[in-house]
């Protein structure tokens, strides 16, 4: 599954906000084309981890290497409300109009070039955010709960769309999620973060090709795996 | 639907202006002394006379140019300072006391000092007005810069937007409402101060004319120049500022 090229390397030894330690030792690599899901309780530091990888937070001990160009889909769509869908791609990423147009076509927003984001539904906004992340041809793709607060059907369609786009471009992807179905469908590996400060308490590899996965069975086995790591809590 | 609301607003505005004229007329009739309170039609006749002689436009133009120059200088410098203080807490700790000092500096003091230090020149006049206005613009823009959406900041950094693109597409639209408010407050404040500047040390402009006719006790002429200039500033508001605000805010109204 992982393609050619250098794997993205993350080796965080310590990260704290003020005197509160957030992340302990967290180290992993993600090969090009590989999708690594990161899960764990809310507020454990998953978003902090993504921000470090994205280069948004540089105040930590450790090293992040071979990240290359980053595409990121944030928890909120985080679009420029005062620019059109097309402008949100060209003005933000510096890509050409044609590239932006085909990226919008790819996510099914071909009819919305001149629409302002607040005229779009949340699902469309999230697809626009996904198009923006993909149009930069990222070496590293970061997805921070990119499919939350969508209804099941919309979320499923978006995951399938993301899967298609990822197969075509093969970035090293880091996917923060709580959703077992999402991990079962997209991830090649899953890391479980927990503790104060948080560190990797478990790691599992998901086998099977993307198309031939038995997702319900995978979800069930992920659920029991997570339950064994976190006996007191239950996951959705 | 919006058109009807607009129409109703226009009618109300016109009626209320008409009412102001009636009050003026009644006051003039009660005073019964045209040298003290001239009638609206008397003032209108003077405006017509001055316009026919061409002097009205010379002085209106001179004042308008000063307003424009002071406005551009004040907005340019005020926005830069405001943006800087709003973005950098360290700069704000040092800059804030200065800002408060200059905010509380009376316009008259700035004008007099500016004339004394720079001389009775155009530069001194524009500087004096701009210095009066800069702190206010800076304070309003600083509030805008403080309220920037941190998520958009992150986004623009991840996608490596250039500083220029960030300024134009991320910051400027967020600042637009504050910029518009500062611009409006600016225009109305600036033109009043410009008149004082002209009153004290210029040889043309509406303020100079008012000084002249004040010394000759010609109330009609004082009012004629004031009313003309108010009309010009209202036109700027209605035909320049409001359309620009509508254009800048068009993305909001598409919601829903």
What does this protein structure show overall?
The complex is a heterodimer of chains A (236) and B (256). Chain A is an alpha/beta fold and 236 residues long. In chain A, 35% of the residues lie in helices and 24% in strands. Chain A has helices at residues 46-54, 85-93, 97-106, 122-135, 152-169, 180-186, 215-229; strands at 8-17, 20-23, 26-30, 35-39, 61-65, 70-73, 140-144, 172-176, 189-194, 199-205. In chain A, the strands form 2 sheets. In chain A, strands 6-7-8-4-9-10 form a 6-stranded mixed beta sheet, sandwiched between helices. In chain A, strands 1, 2, 3 and 5 form a 4-stranded antiparallel beta sheet that branches. In chain A, a hairpin with a 2-residue loop joins strand 1 and strand 2 (20-23). The two termini of chain A are 28 Å apart. Chain B has 256 residues and is mainly alpha-helical. Chain B is 86% helix and 0% strand. Chain B has helices at 2-31, 40-53, 55-87, 89-103, 107-118, 122-146, 150-158, 163-201, 206-215, 219-248, 250-253. In chain B, helix 3 (55-87) runs antiparallel to helix 4 and helix 5 crosses helix 6 (122-146). The radius of gyration of chain B is 22 Å and the shape is globular. The model of chain B has no long low-confidence stretch (mean pLDDT 88).
């Amino acid at each position: 599954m992982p393609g050619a090229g250098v794997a993205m390397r993350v080796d965080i030894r310590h990260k704290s906000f003020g005197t509160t330690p957030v992340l302990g030792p967290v180290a992993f690599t993600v090969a090009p084309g590989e999708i690594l899901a990161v899960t764990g309780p809310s507020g454990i530091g998953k978003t902090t981890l993504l921000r470090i990888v994205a280069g948004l937070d540089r105040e930590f001990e450790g090293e992040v290497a071979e990240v290359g160009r980053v595409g990121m889909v944030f928890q909120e769509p985080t679009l420029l409300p005062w620019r059109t869908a097309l402008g949100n791609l060209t003005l933000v990423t510096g890509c050409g109009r044609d590239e932006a147009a085909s990226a919008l076509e790819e996510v099914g927003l071909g009819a919305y070039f001149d629409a302002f984001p607040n005229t779009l539904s949340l699902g469309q906004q999230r697809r626009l955010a996904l198009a923006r992340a993909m149009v930069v041809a990222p070496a590293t793709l970061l997805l921070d709960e990119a499919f939350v607060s969508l209804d099941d059907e919309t979320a499923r369609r978006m995951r399938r769309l993301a899967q298609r786009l990822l197969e075509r471009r093969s970035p090293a992807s880091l996917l923060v999620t709580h959703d077992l179905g999402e991990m079962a469908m997209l991830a090649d590996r899953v890391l479980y973060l927990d503790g104060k400060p948080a560190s990797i308490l478990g790691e599992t590899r998901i086998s099977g090709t993307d198309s031939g996965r038995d997702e319900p069975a995978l979800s069930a086995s992920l659920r029991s795996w997570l339950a064994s790591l976190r006996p007191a809590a239950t996951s959705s | 639907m919006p058109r009807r609301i607009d129409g109703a607003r226009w009618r109300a505005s016109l009626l209320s202006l008409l009412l102001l004229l009636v009050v003026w007329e009644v006051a003039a009739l009660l005073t019964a002394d045209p040298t003290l309170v001239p009638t609206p039609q008397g003032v209108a006749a003077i405006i017509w006379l001055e316009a026919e002689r061409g002097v009205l436009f010379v002085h209106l133009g001179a004042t308008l140019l000063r307003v424009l120059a002071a406005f551009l200088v004040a907005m340019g410098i005020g926005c830069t300072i405001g943006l800087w203080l709003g973005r950098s807490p360290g700069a704000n700790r040092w800059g804030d006391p200065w800002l408060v000092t200059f905010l509380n500096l009376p316009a008259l003091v700035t004008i007099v000092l500016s004339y004394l230090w720079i001389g009775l020149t155009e530069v001194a006049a524009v500087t004096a007005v701009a210095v009066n206005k800069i702190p206010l613009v800076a304070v309003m823009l600083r509030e805008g810069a403080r309220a920037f959406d941190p998520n958009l900041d992150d986004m623009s950094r991840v996608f490596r937007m250039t500083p220029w693109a960030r300024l134009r597409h991320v910051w400027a639209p967020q600042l637009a409402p504050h910029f518009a408010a500062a611009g409006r407050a600016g225009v109305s404040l600036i033109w009043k101060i410009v008149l004082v500047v002209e009153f004290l040390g210029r040889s043309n402009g509406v303020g100079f004319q008012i000084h002249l006719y004040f010394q000759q006790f010609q109330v009609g002429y004082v009012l004629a120049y004031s009313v003309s200039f108010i009309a010009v500033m209202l036109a700027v508001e209605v035909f320049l500022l409001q359309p620009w605000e509508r254009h800048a805010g068009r993305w909001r109204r598409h919601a829903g």
